[in-house]
Automatic annotation (TrEMBL):
The keyword Repeat applies. Belongs to the WSCD family. Pfam families: WSC. Residues 130-222, 233-327 form the WSC domain. This is WSC domain containing 2. Keywords: Repeat. The lineage of its organism: Eukaryota, Metazoa, Chordata, Craniata, Vertebrata. InterPro entries: P-loop_NTPase, Sialate-O-sulfotransferase, WSC_carb-bd.
Length: 568
């Protein structure tokens, strides 16, 4: 036996290429076995504790202890939602243990697609608000019932998780299939079937049903912001009155007797316009301009004329248009450069870490056409297009300087400042995610459940308050901007910021920024926490800091913190 082994060893020494080929094949086979076993194995059961939050903070100082901090139980950190491609073979086992053949192509009518009133079989002691179960539906790999984004999680998929991610992206429907897959969509394009055909438990909670073999358990979502709705890749902007000078406001028009949202959006996309406006049997394309700014939305009932080619969609009227934003990029605000002459003043874009500074920089660069700088250097930001990141912060070539500093000496080095403030609960979580997961990543579950999170809150929460107080005390010319106001009314708040920077910007450019506002540093939400990580002691301490900052702002005749900062 030993002699055979030595021969085998000597053979591979002489033929190293064959050895490495053999090794690769061995590892590949092992990976396939692992994936298969992970799919057909028992689901990891976890608690479904709602109350997701997003947000976060920065690097900090040694600050007072917040008390005995205990975090609730949550989910184990496993591979998170990926773009969906089916990972199973032609057969799938249902929960009854019988093998079910994958079902064929269905097509056909879907007149009962929006039929509601079904209670579903979810656990009554754990109601899922913001959604209504409407039934079990056919699904087909060649023609999906829900055609928006999708993701899977073969270890801990829950009904709440699927609903939350679809709602965050503005979809009207969320559907679960095979116990582990989540599909989102703006309309249902399949037929309703018997409830008995949706018979697979969710991988992350056995008490709930998550569809079946080529069967979707579908929920109708109640969106917090109707403007976030989508139709495929197009974003729903709302119902708007016909502009006064239609040919100037929306320069391209096509008559479509058999009108549908798809046809108008595809037509305007082909013409390379970012807006598609449906007006009954006419499709108009254009840009958001001062003639058609999309700031005064009308009641959707005024646009409620059904599309001739779509039973469940509205196509507007000749007087009131349904408007969608296509995937075409509005290039009117994409040019950026360094200042042509050295700036005579240094203006800070100051914020506590996790308060949206990078996003604000993105908006300012689009609005002014000039790069922003930084007190620090972040290579990942430079690689994403923030070219001012490499310049020394005193170079004078950038329109403003990002900083998280809060000492008197550092603050007095600037001639003026835009002070961006965000809800501390959101900011702390955002910075924690950045610190342990990168700009668009997420902290691992072990970090949330370990000692890192309590220690982080203990150190960073006081800094959130002192950062604002220091800039109010030592700043020379401070413009206060609430992150929440910037999200809610970007046009007005960004106009205030640009005015302080001393740049004359045309309104059409600000309207362009509105349509490009997200940038490259928005977390997907697919790993949003499904429980509140803040203990009662943490909340008590943070609320005291909120009241302290609110009093300081009002004492200087500034706008106090928004109402949604507290109570928790």
């Amino acid at each position: 036996m030993a002699k055979l082994w030595f021969k085998f060893q000597r053979y591979f020494r002489r033929k190293p290429v064959r050895f490495f080929t053999f090794l690769v094949l061995y590892l590949t086979a092992g990976s396939l076995v692992f994936l298969h076993s992970g799919f057909v194995g028992q689901p990891a059961v976890s608690q479904n504790q709602a109350n997701p939050a997003v947000g976060a903070p920065a690097e900090g100082a040694e600050l007072p202890f917040l008390g005995d901090l205990h975090l609730g139980r949550g989910f184990r950190d496993t591979g998170e939602a990926l773009s969906i491609t089916r990972r199973y073979g032609p057969w799938f086992k249902g929960k009854d243990g019988n093998e079910r053949a994958k079902l064929g192509d269905y097509g056909g009518a879907w007149s009962r697609a929006l039929k509601g009133g079904l209670s579903g079989r979810r656990k009554k002691s754990e109601p899922l608000p913001k959604a209504k179960y409407i039934g079990c539906y056919l699904d087909d790999t060649q023609s999906r019932a829900l055609r928006g984004v999708s993701f899977f999680d073969y270890k801990k998929m829950t009904v709440f998780r699927c609903q939350d991610n679809c709602a965050e992206r503005g979809y009207l429907y969320a559907g679960l299939e095979f116990g582990a897959e989540c599909y989102c969509g703006h309309k249902i394009q399949a037929a309703n079937v018997s409830e008995a055909e949706c018979d697979m438990e969710c991988k992350g909670e056995r008490s709930n049903v998550c569809g079946g073999a080529n069967r979707l358990s579908i929920y109708r979502l109640q969106l917090a912001q109707e403007s976030a709705r989508r139709y495929g890749s197009a974003v729903f902007r709302g119902c708007f009155r016909r502009p006064d000078n239609l040919s100037l406001a929306l320069p391209v028009t096509a008559a479509m007797l058999n009108m549908s949202v798809d046809k108008c959006v595809d037509f305007c996309t082909g013409k390379e316009y970012p807006l598609a406006a449906l007006a009954g049997t006419a499709c108009h394309c254009g840009f958001p301009t001062t003639r058609f700014p999309l700031h005064e939305r009308e009641d959707e009932q005024l646009c409620a004329q059904k599309c001739s080619a779509e039973e469940f969609e509205s196509c507007g009227t000749p007087s009131y248009f349904i408007v969608y934003q296509t995937q075409v990029q509005d290039n009117r605000c994409m040019d950026r450069r360094f200042l042509p002459a050295k700036s005579k003043q240094l203006i800070a874009l100051a914020s506590f870490p996790g308060a949206g500074n990078t996003w604000a920089r993105h908006l300012i660069e689009l609005a002014t056409g000039f790069y922003t700088g930084s007190y620090y250097f972040d290579g990942s930001l430079y690689n994403k297009g923030f070219k001012g990141e490499r310049d020394h912060w005193r170079s004078g070539r950038t329109i403003c300087i990002k900083t998280h500093e809060s000492g008197q000496k550092e603050i007095e080095a600037f001639d003026a400042a835009i002070l961006l403030i965000r809800n501390p609960y959101k900011a702390l979580m955002a910075e924690f995610n950045r610190k342990y997961g990168g700009h668009i990543g997420f902290a691992a579950h072990a970090h949330w459940k370990g000692k890192e999170w309590p220690e982080f809150v203990r150190n960073y929460a006081p800094w959130w308050a002192t950062h604002t107080l220091d800039w109010l005390k030592f700043g020379k010319k401070v413009l206060l901007v609430h992150f929440e106001d910037l999200k809610r009314d970007l046009f007005v708040q960004l106009g205030r910021m640009v005015h302080l920077l001393g740049v004359a910007v045309h309104e059409d450019r600000l309207l362009c920024v509105e349509s490009q506002k997200d940038g490259n540093f928005k977390r997907s939400g697919l790993r949003k926490l499904e429980y509140d990580p803040y203990t009662a002691d943490m909340q008590k301490t943070i609320s005291a800091y909120i009241k302290m900052v609110d009093a300081a702002l009002k004492g200087r005749n500034l706008t106090g913190v928004p109402d949604d900062y507290y109570p928790r």
